[in-house]
């Protein structure tokens, strides 16, 4: 009887211990999944807000590119009277964008105009200007590119819209820049200490992170996630 009681007590303790461990592990997994789902929902809401803001800018940029005056100017950038009228119209679009920034460039003279800055000749052959030929010759509506300005410590999302003449030949482009640094900082600040969030482009270059050096040096995301694997 004593042996039976001892065995029963030991067996009960083993079952209790095993059940407790299983319960704790299952609760830990549930909490982890709940936090993960909550984070996903928060990030999705933030993403929708950013997407809505970007879509509003796209609409304005498309209207800018659809202007007959702008199209004529890009086809004849050396016509002074035409240029003066077009520049007034183009400059007015900067007030319509949330960033108060507009840019435009005619393919004939390659003069890059940017709100609040002196125009300069853009060289499409430079590696950092890859977006130029991509916009003019590979894009029908619009495209994006992201760049980090180390001097201002800001990350901008650029909306590039090609401009076509009446024969559907590309003659230039217009667009705007949206600072997404505030969005990146908000996401990282809200979840500081709990996880690391990285944004990266199709080339796997990090475009958003707590450490701005990763953005400036165009570090590959695989270098940060090599422990996790593909």
Walkthrough of the structure:
The chain is α+β, with helices and mostly antiparallel strands and 230 residues long. The protein is 50% helix and 19% strand. It has a six-stranded antiparallel beta sheet with strand order 3-2-1-6-5-4.
> Main β-sheet, in a few words?
6 strands, antiparallel
- Count of runs of 4 or more consecutive helical residues: 7
Q: What is the radius of gyration computed over CA atoms, rounded to a whole number of angstroms?
A: 27 Å
What is the general shape?
Answer: elongated
Helicity level? 40-55%
End-to-end C-alpha gap: 59 Å
Chain-wise SSE layout:
Blueprint (H helix, E strand, L loop, with lengths): L1 H64 L2 H8 L4 H14 L9 E4 L4 E4 L5 E2 L8 H9 L4 E7 L4 E11 L5 E10 L1 H10 L8 E2 L5 E3 L3 H5 L4 H4 L6
Antiparallel strand pairs: 1-2, 1-6, 2-3, 4-5, 5-6, 7-8
């Amino acid at each position: 009887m004593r042996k039976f009681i001892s065995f029963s007590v030991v067996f009960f303790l083993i079952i209790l211990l095993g059940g407790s461990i299983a319960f704790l592990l299952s609760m830990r997994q549930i909490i982890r999944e709940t936090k993960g789902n909550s984070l996903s929902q928060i990030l999705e809401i933030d993403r929708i807000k950013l997407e809505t803001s970007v879509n509003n800018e796209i609409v304005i940029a498309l209207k800018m590119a659809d202007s007959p005056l702008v199209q004529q100017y890009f086809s004849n950038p050396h016509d002074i009277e035409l240029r003066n009228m077009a520049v007034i119209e183009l400059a007015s679009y900067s007030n319509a964008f949330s960033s108060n920034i507009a840019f435009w460039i005619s393919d004939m003279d390659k003069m890059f105009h940017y709100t609040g800055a002196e125009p300069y000749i853009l060289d499409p052959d430079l590696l950092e200007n890859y977006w130029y030929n991509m916009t003019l010759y590979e894009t029908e509506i619009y495209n994006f590119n992201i760049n980090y300005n180390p001097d201002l410590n800001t990350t901008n999302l650029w909306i590039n819209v090609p401009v076509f003449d009446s024969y559907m030949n590309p003659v230039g482009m217009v667009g705007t820049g949206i600072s997404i640094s505030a969005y990146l900082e908000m996401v990282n600040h809200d979840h500081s200490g709990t996880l690391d969030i990285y944004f990266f482009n199709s080339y796997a270059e990090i475009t958003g992170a707590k450490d701005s050096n990763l953005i400036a040096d165009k570090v590959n995301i695989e270098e940060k996630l090599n422990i996790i694997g593909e």
